[in-house]
Specification:
single chain, 484 residues, binds cytidine-5'-triphosphate
């Protein structure tokens, strides 16, 4: 089999062949590395399967490198791996993983695999898809020979995801494979073989035995693909989405009353996700697209004479974000807060596309969005999914106007990273009071007055304004603090 390898990879394979020869172990490169080389995708890890002791082999290969890379190993699983530099200039490395050939099966209700040593054939039988079961020999007698018992090469050519064994058998070994099938179909632009897909539909419930971390890793890989909608559509149609992310399937469907319907918010969301994927690889901005309308099912109402409304869905949706992140075991940090903020603000720019928008409305958006203003504008533009080309053009032109106004006002007022000139600490110090509602009220009044343009954005103007408002609240500056 001819595949194009770098000098680093060729040297590695020579060294593996040499060490395996000495140890009298049979050895093969297998799985994703072979698949990706054949279809010309970049590879960052190489799985080496060895009929024999994989840990011993890994150490013997590592010892042929100077300096010798550190070998990490897991005795219980009989696996070991080390990293070698791929590109000295940018620090890229190749992760080389050694595993013993095995027969493996998961007990029906358990996540713990039983690992039993086996032949190469056994090992290929227990792999997830024909395209991931291709092996290339690294043995002296047939070095470079492709061993492809399931016609994986043809499936690669015909762009097909197909299990090597009867699909239910392969999926019962590790139900995560149902998600992996959909993930590979999305990443590679392949079709899932109908029989394999039917088995996913039939076995979907078994995904419940898989840990949330592994599930979410697959979801994130689908989101990171070029056209993530492909994966979500398959997740939906297979019944998996209903189990792993039911809040998203709640968006599906269109209801009609008196002949008036609303759009299917699930497919709308997928369109927004694809739209944003054209412009950014940022996983969290893509998550914001997925969740932007998540509050719609909970706020949906039919108002006679008016039609369907989703009032406040951005607020309800924003509140749902932390719960969803928590349940999917996504990070509960600034990434979550970023997504929440975008969901909460996603209707704001559109309200600024009308004529005669005041500077204060623009200032307010700049203040609320802060650093996230560019991401927010990107989300809003992705949110235009009308089929009417004229309409899309008009909306985009309106957003262009909003962008211009944002730039104009930002240049003039520098609101984006702005903090009001008087802080809560200053207020407590000036009036000699502790943390209380009055402090918050005064702070808000000052901020609002500046954003509304009632007073100038300066310390002096804010100070005078504060004294005036404080007098009405029966607050007096502590002696000696006045005019500080
Ligand atoms: N594999 C499997 N079943 C799983 C996970 C992995 O059979 N549930 C096998 C496949 O042969 C796969 C190999 O182990 O090719 C390596 O797995 P992994 O690194 O997760 O996937 P890759 O195919 O390398 O693809 P990617 O790196 O894109 O995840």
């Amino acid at each position: 089999m001819y595949i194009s390898c770098s000098d680093t990879e060729l040297l590695l394979f020579d060294r593996i062949a040499e060490a395996a020869g000495r140890l009298e172990a049979e050895v093969f490169v297998i799985g994703g590395f072979v698949r990706d080389k054949i279809i010309g995708r970049p590879t960052r890890d190489a799985d080496i399967v060895c009929v024999g002791n994989a840990i011993e082999l890994a150490n013997a290969v590592a010892a042929l490198y100077h300096p010798k890379p550190a070998v990490a190993f897991f005795k219980n699983f009989g696996t070991a791996h080390f990293k070698i530099p791929l590109n000295a200039n940018n620090g890229e490395v190749l992760d080389v993983e050694f595993v013993g050939a095995r027969k493996e099966s998961y007990r029906a209700s358990s996540r713990k695999p039983e690992v039993v040593p086996g032949t190469l054939e056994d090992d290929q039988n227990r792999r997830d898809f024909t395209i991931n079961a291709l092996a290339i020999s690294l043995n002296k007698n047939n070095y470079g020979q492709l061993i492809d018992p399931f016609d994986g090469l043809r499936d690669l050519e015909e762009k097909r995801i197909h299990t090597p064994l009867e699909p239910l058998t392969t999926f019962s070994d590790d139900p995560l494979r149902m998600l992996r099938a959909i993930r590979f179909a999305t990443q590679l632009g392949f079709q899932i073989d109908p029989q394999t897909f039917q088995a996913i539909v039939a076995d979907a419930e078994r995904i419940r035995i898989i840990s949330q971390e592994r599930i979410t890793e697959e979801i994130n890989k689908i989101i990171a693909a070029e056209k993530p909608s492909v994966g979500f559509d398959l997740l939906y149609k297979s019944g998996l989405l209903e189990i792993i992310f039911p809040k998203m399937t709640d968006l599906a469907g269109a209801e009609y009353i008196d002949g008036l319907g609303h759009k299917d918010n699930f497919y709308h969301t997928l369109q927004v996700l694809d739209n944003i994927a054209v412009h950014t690889n940022d996983l969290w901005l893509r998550w914001a697209a997925i969740l932007h309308d998540i509050g719609k099912p909970a706020t949906k109402k039919f108002e006679a004479g008016h039609g369907w409304t989703f009032h406040g869905h951005e607020v309800v949706g924003g509140r749902m974000v932390p719960k969803i992140f928590d349940s999917l075991k996504l990070p509960m940090n600034d990434k979550m807060r970023f997504v929440r903020k975008l969901v909460e603000l996603h209707l704001r720019p559109i309200s600024l596309t009308k004529e005669n928008i005041t500077d204060s409305a623009i200032r307010r958006l700049l203040f609320d969005a802060g650093e996230e203003i560019d991401s927010l504008m990107m989300l809003c533009e992705a949110d235009i999914t009308s089929k009417n080309k004229q309409k899309v053009k008009r909306y985009l032109e309106n957003f262009e106007m909003v962008r211009e106004r944002l730039l104009e006002v930002e240049e003039k007022d520098r609101i984006r990273n702005w903090q009001p000139p008087i802080t809560g600490e200053m207020i407590m110090d000036i009036f000699g009071i502790g943390p209380s509602k009055k402090v918050g009220d005064l702070k808000n009044l000052i901020r609002e007055a500046i954003l509304e343009g009632e007073i100038e954005n300066s310390f002096d103007a804010a100070y005078r304004f504060m004294l005036d408002k404080a007098a009405g609240m029966n607050l007096k500056p502590v002696e000696g603090k006045l005019g500080d």
